[in-house]
Write a structure and sequence with these properties.
Oligomer: single chain
Strand content: under 5%
Helix content: over 70%
Number of domains: 1
Structural class: mainly alpha
Shape: globular
Strand order of the largest sheet: 1-4
Mean pLDDT: 92
Number of helices: 11
Number of strands: 4
Low-confidence stretches: none
Distance between the termini: 15 Å
């Protein structure tokens, strides 16, 4: 089976079923990661302990996926299931749109609560604009991490590629913090996630630009992304904000400390409806990628 049908099947499964409510493999993987950290992240742990933990967590499962995907008759099914479990497009909508609905209904406490599920900043004191900004930024960044990067690595390396990426991204979310506990141990997880997301993030920035205010998005990407602290989130959010004609960024309160960040994009401040516009931008981008995959597949088999 060609790449395009597999991509379509994985995205369609995500659209129809969403994330598994029970027995999600990533939940079990998270438990494994916690055990590895308890074993290896001791007071004298070095970066090499983090490298070893990363290898033990990611490599065996990636090799197992490669072996299963190579099996005759069922290999294609393994590939589709791997992509389905890695792509979070429906989940992105299910988390973001209720925030917009709460804001539109004037229920700011509920909107703060719901946005707190998807961002790491303190949301208890956010006003309506702050909630809309946090949610819109999360949609743009998670669209890159949880949707497009998974599609990219599946297209490049198949089922083992998407499993490798999703596990690495999960470890970055668990270990990739710059605090005392993870500064050494989590270094490998953070850097490897940066490497795996480098090219996908720039393709996502271009995708956002093509699906929105193209010239403005490209200009924001060029001028603003270098000033952002993350090498991959900067291009994605600068281009996304420019594509939506919005101003994002500006910092927030994280773990009790204010962190100032540059402004991104151009235009007006985000409102409740802009959260849905961000979700729609991600969906348009996915449709564009699938269309390109179908065109390439059609030309290949013509």
């Amino acid at each position: 089976m060609g790449l395009a049908p597999l991509l379509l099947a994985g995205v369609l499964l995500d659209h129809l079923l969403g994330e598994p409510k029970r027995w999600h493999p990533l939940v079990g993987f998270g438990r494994l990661a916690k055990r590895l950290e308890q074993w290896l992240n001791r007071p004298a742990a070095s970066r090499w302990h983090g490298v070893l933990a990363w290898l033990l967590a990611v490599v065996p499962l990636t090799l197992l996926t490669a072996a299963l995907a190579a099996l005759p008759w069922i290999g294609w099914l393994v590939a589709v299931l791997a992509l389905y479990l890695a792509v979070g497009l429906r989940s992105l909508s299910e988390h973001a749109l209720p925030i917009a609905q709460a804001l539109a209904a004037g229920d700011l406490p509920l909107a703060r609560e719901r946005v707190g599920y998807i961002v790491s900043r303190d949301t208890s004191a956010l006003d309506a604009e702050g909630v809309a900004r946090a949610a819109t930024e999360s949609v743009l960044e998670n669209g890159s991490d949880a949707v497009f990067a998974a599609l990219f690595w599946f297209a490049l390396l198949g089922a083992p590629g998407v499993v490798l990426y999703r596990l690495a991204n999960t470890l970055d979310a668990m270990w990739g913090y710059r605090n005392q506990r993870y500064r050494q141990f989590g270094w490998a997880a953070a850097r490897l996630d940066d490497v795996l997301n480098y090219l996908p993030a720039r393709l996502v920035a271009l995708t956002y630009a093509l699906c929105g205010c193209t010239r403005q998005a490209l200009a924001c990407w060029r001028r603003q992304a270098p000033h952002w602290d993350s090498p991959n989130a900067g291009p994605v959010m600068a281009a996304g904000a420019g594509a939506l004609n919005l101003q994002l960024g500006g910092g927030g309160c994280y773990h009790g400390q204010w962190q100032g960040k540059p402004m991104l994009g151009a235009g007006g401040p985000p409102m409740a409806a802009d959260i849905g516009r961000a979700v729609w931008l991600v969906r348009q981008g996915v449709a564009l990628w699938l269309l390109l995959a179908l065109i390439v597949w059609g030309l290949t088999y013509a």
